[in-house]
Amino acid sequence: MSAKHSGVAKLWLLNLIGNAALLAAVYFWLLMPDAHGWQVGGSALAAVLVIFFGVWLRTGTFAYFRVAEFRDNATVWRAFRHALRHIVALAVWAASLAVLVWLLWNLRTYTPQAGVWIRQKLNTGPTPRNVTRDLNWLIVLIVWVSIPAVWLPIASTVAAAGFRLKRMARSLRVLRRPAYWLWFCALMLAGAYVPYKLVWWIPDLSDLHKQAWSMGLRFFLAYVILITAWVALLLVIGARVEKEDPDIIPIDEVPPSSAAPGPLLAAGS
Question: Residues near 167 by Cβ (< 8 Å), separated by ≥ 6?
Fold first, then answer.
């Protein structure tokens, strides 16, 4: 196994275990009592730790796939140490995504009125119900396809280099590449639709014990597929964004095996 393949396998395993641990931590956090002040303080501290490690896992994974130095040498820990300085930047960028998605998703409340208004203005065409359905699907496509396709390339640069507007703008050049859209849509479909169908598939099993095993295996398989598609998507995005923005990202530390600093320490634009 080459260094590149070894690094991808490490990141896959780290995300597989790390995200499961975060989900378990959130579950136990919800069960924490809050009858006393020290319990509230402990709950707040636990929430901060869960958020920190959750954002760090995302930032480190983005940075690893964005910087060729990390990918080529499978230096996972170096990537995560480098990403520490950009945790706040990625958290702010993620918060902007959350707000935008929340605002757009809430627009679905007004699609029935919009459907009636459009039908009245056109005075012809499809019924208000069909217009409402089409508007809802349009919002779904914007929220789950268009926004992630734009947000993720910039997020990879933010995780690796922080808020550098020129580099963030250059990251969007991947949107002009048809191959990027093919990979993005294929991996999004594999990572969202396939797990969804697995989770909601109910086999015809009469025995309760078999049903429990079936549910557990289907949930586990759906989770593995989701993590695999996520890691593959970040690999595709990171490598393609780097081709559009080839300027070297400065990294402070040099591997012990390197005798000279090399071009890695050159300042990025």
Answer: 157, 161, 245, 247, 268, 269
